[in-house]
Amino acid sequence: MTQTLTIRRPDDWHLHLRDGDMLRAVLPHTAQHFARAIIMPNLVPPVVTGAEAAAYRDRILAALPEGADFTPLMTLYLTEDTDPDDVAKAHAEGLIHAVKLYPAGATTNSASGVSDFSRVAAVLGRMAEIGLPLCTHGEVTDPAIDIFDREAVFIERVLDPIRKAHPELRVVMEHITTADAVDYVMASDRNLAATITTHHLVINRNHILAGGIKPHYYCLPVAKRETHRLALRRAATSGDARFFLGTDSAPHTDANKLLPCGCAGCFTAPNTMSILAEVFEQEAALDRLEAFASRNGPAFYGLPVNEDTLTLVRETPDFPGHINTPDGPVTVFDPAMPLHWTA
Ligand code: DOR
Ligand code: ZN
User: Fold this and answer.
1) Which residues does the chain have with pLDDT short of 50?
2) What is the CATH number of the domain that holds 159?
3) In angstroms, what is the span from residue 251 Cα to ligand 1's centroid?
4) Number of domains in the chain
5) Which domain covers residue 80, as residue numbers?
6) Could you tell me the CA-to-CA distances from 52 to 77, 183, 254, 256 in Å, in that order?
């Protein structure tokens, strides 16, 4: 039996770091394992301009623990007023690596997102020209659409028309949760990839709703039925370069998770690598963990693979149930299964 597993140091291609005290509390957990991360811009107010992204990057760098080696890869939050020239300038300076599309109202702090997709056509056209990826939160917000169908309907109503209008646009479908999304990625031969979270490889909707409601398993897009989870596991462990890790680790205090109208998000930064090793071993695919966590992402984003490595050891890890922050405790995602790998 393999006792250690050494892979190129992984990156997280979708991460929420927040700001201020919360940023300082959660960042060390990511920097411990990951060399780089695509940083989500859904702060309040959102990170819309290049100048705002530069200021946020500096706050992240200032919050890093002494000696940590971590590079935040910044993104801009797409609004209907986003200026294509500002986007192109931030990209040319090497400051930003993607632009994030939130349909208005789809999730946490998405109120400034896009309602009328025709109003972002010029920005998307410019991004296609300069090769800057668009990261999508792939859910429609139409209240008539069942929440479990919102990803599939987004593909049909929003994403496919955008990709037909801008065939050169490079798109990352973020945190996919359905077999429909897996199939859509597999059917494309270029300019399309998807991130998959750790938690969506582990939970299905029963974890949230059966035997009592479990707010800590509530995230967006919401976990779907088991057949979809299995499709995600096949995609993630396949080695296919179009699928890579984006944890969507999204810290909220317990006070904000446990409200009558609680926040969406699972905080997985501390135990993601242990959980992934478990999942990949269950799928007899430990040899493909490196592709998913360390190689496929940089290949899509046109960045080098990290030079240094991360070694996982077959030892029962010991994670706290929560971390303490000045804003209050934040519960660490419970994978509801024994773990055998320590990172
Ligand atoms: O579960 C989620 N939490 N999904 C998102 O899209 C946003 C995120 C957050 O910012 O809390
Ligand atoms: Zn997210």
Assistant:
1) none
2) 3.20.20.140
3) 9
4) 1
5) 4-342
6) 10, 36, 29, 26
